[in-house]
Design a protein that fits this description.
Layout: E1 10-14, H1 21-30, E2 36-41, H2 49-54, E3 61-64, H3 69-74, E4 77-80, H4 89-96, E5 100-102, H5 104-111, E6 113-120, H6 125-139, E7 145-149, H7 156-159, E8 164-171, H8 174-177, E9 191-194, H9 202-205, H10 208-216, E10 227-231, H11 237-241, E11 248-253, E12 261-265, E13 268-273, E14 276-282, H12 284-290, H13 294-307, H14 312-319, E15 330-334, E16 338-342, H15 349-359, E17 363-368, H16 378-387, E18 393-396, H17 399-410, E19 420-421, H18 424-432, E20 470-474, H19 487-502
Parallel strand pairs: 1-2, 1-4, 2-3, 4-5, 6-8, 6-9, 7-8, 9-10, 10-11, 11-12, 16-20, 17-18, 17-20, 18-19
Antiparallel strand pairs: 12-13, 13-14, 15-16
Amino acid sequence: MDIKDFENKKVLIFGLGILGGGVASVKFFSKIKGVKLRITDLKSKKDLAESLKKIKDIKAEYVFGKHRKEDIDWADVVVVNPGVGINNEFVKYAFEKKKIVVNDLSIFFNLAKAEIIAITGTRGKTTTSNWIYHFLKNGLENKKVYLGGNQPENPLLKILPKVKNGIVVIEVSSFQLEFCNKKIGKNLPKIAIITNIYPDHLNRYKTMKNYIKQKTNIFLNQGENDYLILNKDNKWTNYILKFKPKSKVLFVSKKEIKNDGIYLKNDFLYIRLNKKERKVFGVKDFLEKYGEHNLYNLMNAILTAYILNVPTTKIKKLINSLPQVRFRQEIIYKDKNLMIVNDSSATSPEATIQAIERFKDKNLILITGGTDKNLDFKNLAKEIKKYIKPENLILLNGSATKKLIEELRKIKYKIKEENIFEDLKDIVSNILLGFKTDIIPGYKSDLSGKHPGNLSGKHPGKSVLYPRSSVVLFSPASASFEKFKNEFDRGKKFNKIVYNFLK
């Protein structure tokens, strides 16, 4: 595939969406010689207003509120938004009609003029991507490094024109990988990472094996000189290996391993490559600052940087300045009495379990709940019963919340009905009303519920005063679509509500 393959073609953007990927696709194709654009989406013009504003000066035809086979018939090229699955009836029709069917990732893999490092997995891929970028950008001299992928700020087709030589680090989802299951003409990515596998998106894939199959597409086109990094401790790794990667397989592990890769022994990380072993880094301070769940992300990032010849002396120095990733156990407020953590990107029960494990030794107040993705909440319910007092469990109502409540009741956990809310604003105001007035700067309320943070007035305010040294953890354990556009929108709204209340 070459950029010339798209010239003078009729291009259908199948799903504009609201996360930025569709907008990036429109802008990318609008700059290609002779392209005629048509854009369709199941959402209404009103729902897409934000996206449409960003492409208002681009000439295109629009079809709102529906997809049509006649649009497929019209097109030479069908560009599929990640929200649309490969088994969608219209996508199948496009394949039947021998159309060129692509998505942002398959285009990027074909056209990017740089070494590609691609990261996927259920948890940790955004943190891993950002930390790899941090090590490479600051640790390599005379080499350009780029970051992008499954992120609203840097969608793939937005960064593609900028990527010239150097190295590009991309986060990719199973949705994007669905369209990369055929040979694309070259060996890539140079380094592929599958951080871990846990149940997720089962409303789309139905079974774990179907879900994992999409993830394995990340190494389908690798050659013997490329690298695949897997989590040795994850129970699905042996199943992944059944797909017989051609690349050199390395492992990360919290236990000593005989394989090549990186592992933990006596609180130190060791790298073993080509029968040579090196002691790299003591993790005690790191674990205290970033939590144990981030150790795998660190190992993935260190191993990748090491493969690409970042000196270990630089790696050790750069660990002290690792960036905080938004909405992933992000500490948005902290003083000696109170910490507020935004973990909006916890879209599965396993992610919330990780967050609870990190903050369990504090008086932990958990805000959780949202939209179900056909996931199992049994283990999360057990974790909540073990570490969260009933008065400290605050639920944002939704289809997943109902499943969680069901599991909690099965294990005799007493749900406080007054702690089930329909509105995030009410949750934040009522929690913060439960702290003594001298904890929060500028806070004058007498717990009457009249504080302006309590916007709906449906709850009179907490009668309980929470103890000092508490952590408020917003970790939904589920998707967001019943009340928010996506987890990023959910995270932004949580931050805004908190900041408005505390200012």
